[in-house]
Specification:
Helix content is 62%, strand content 6%. The chain has 217 residues and is mostly helical.
């Protein structure tokens, strides 16, 4: 047996998210967690691990622990498009160019401050099948599943890194624009229900704006 994945960055997102799930499972002992995570890194079963001699398992665990503790995300790649299963996908690194639907979904994810657990959902906002508009004529949940099983942690973090670094100022600018438009619409409408809905939307944007600095630290 040998470790198939030499670094957390080599893991497909689905496998990496599984390691997080195992690590956070309070019903498992530390030894059980290590065995289950080792099975993922070795791309084998827990039963196969349990059939090994203790000293063998210890050596593999030491190798895995070293790989995890020394991991540094690679942000060197910035592809404009990717191809998965014969389908080409375009990547938008500029959050300032998202449409309103994408922008709202993006904000709802980043204010949670748990990027790792939400990487597939976050990526599905930035990555779109070529020739399509966001969430139009394709299944976005299916896209998340495709990305989760075909994109490595390194690839995912690289895309999020460049989007984050490039777009922070533009997000703030767009927030101010949308708040101004909502305020004007609220001032000019006479319908009380519409006024209240616009006021609530304006307050939500203000909340997102206040969370923005903390989120992009």
């Amino acid at each position: 047996m040998k470790l198939k994945y030499k670094s957390p960055g080599d893991l497909p997102l689905a496998k990496y998210l599984k390691t997080l799930e195992i690590f956070n499972d309070t019903s498992l002992s530390d030894l059980d967690k290590n065995v289950e995570i080792l099975a993922i890194y070795a791309d084998t079963t827990v039963d196969s691990i349990l059939k090994l001699r203790p000293e063998e398992v210890g050596a593999y665990m030491a190798e895995m622990s070293e790989a995890i503790s020394s991991y540094k995300p690679s942000n060197s790649k910035r592809p404009k498009k990717i191809k998965i299963n014969d389908q080409v996908y375009t990547i938008n690194y500029n959050v300032g160019k998202l449409n309103m639907a994408q922008y709202i979904d993006f904000q709802q994810i980043i204010v949670k401050k748990n990027y790792l657990e939400n990487l597939p959902a976050l990526l599905s906002i930035l990555i779109i099948p070529k020739g399509h508009k966001y969430n139009d004529d394709y299944d976005i949940l299916e896209l998340r599943n495709i990305l989760e099983n075909n994109m490595t942690l390194d690839e995912a973090l690289s895309i999020v890194f460049f989007s984050k670094m490039k777009s922070t100022g533009l997000i703030k600018t767009k927030l101010l624009y949308y708040k101004a438009m909502l305020k004007i619409m609220r001032w000019t409408t006479r319908d009380k229900q519409t006024k209240e809905m616009l006021r609530m939307a304006e307050n939500q944007l203000s909340t997102l704006e206040s969370n923005l600095t903390d989120t992009f630290h």
